[in-house]
Amino acid sequence: MSATLSLTESQTLTALRSFLLSVLPAGTEVVKGQDNRVSEPVGPNFVTMTPLLKSRLSTNVNTAQDCAFNGAISGNTLTVSSMILGAIALNATLFGPNVLVGTTITGNVTGNGGVGTYTVSPAQTVAQQVMACGTQTMLQATKVTVQIDVHGPNSSDNAQIITTAFRDSYATDFFQSTGYDVSPLYADDARQMPFLNGEQQIEERWSIDAVLQTNPVLTLPQQYASELNVNIIDVDATYPA
């Protein structure tokens, strides 16, 4: 299991694009900026989104998620006979005394997180034993700044629409409905920044910096101790009189 993020830049921009499309006039295209060898959208009015900055808002929030079970592996099939704690997740790294390093749970056959069968990679043979597939998660609250460039003859009015709606409870409710962990914080005042197109013609453009909070969670494999061995050490000492 390699590191995975619960929220990507693409998903953040998808949520922002959905918001922009909900408030702008019909027919206004919204695309990601900085695309090479791509012409402008066909319509006269369009919007581009360009991520500018990511700033940490707080220290990490860490969570331990241990998982242990009794199971055996034959080829690419893991058979779980009983659960000890936690739940089995797909793409998790499998740990065990005789399990090959880097073994990953690749699919669910009948297990659904508990007793049953799963597919693993690479293929191997492991007798019945205790195995584990624990993880640790790290949440970093992040402030993301996205430059929104509003092009076209209606760009001034469209910029006014965006800055008004973005700093309203409408935006908060809308972003929540997208299903992504993205929330609007604020947008600065729109500023006019004329744009020179490929034909060396000046087009009207207004630019806005929209600031959002995202809460991506990084998940990594983690081994946990299954038992502790306690030994008594005699610390008595004899000192000379």
Describe the structure.
This protein starts with a strand and ends in a 20-residue tail after the last strand. It is mainly beta. The protein has two domains: 4-60 and 138-221, Phage tail protein-like (STM4215-like, 2-Layer Sandwich), CATH 3.30.2000; 67-133. The protein is built from three helices and 15 strands. The radius of gyration is 27 Å and the shape is elongated. The strands form four sheets. Strands 2, 3, 9, 10, 11 and 14 form a six-stranded mixed β-sheet that branches. The chain has a four-stranded antiparallel β-sheet with strand order 1-15-8-4, with no helix packed on it. It has helices at residues 9-23, 155-166, 169-177; strands at residues 4-5, 29-32, 46-56, 61-65, 68-85, 104-108, 116-132, 135-139, 142-151, 182-187, 191-192, 195-196, 202-203, 205-214, 217-221. Strand 12 (195-196) and strand 13 form a beta hairpin. The model has no long low-confidence stretch (mean pLDDT 92).
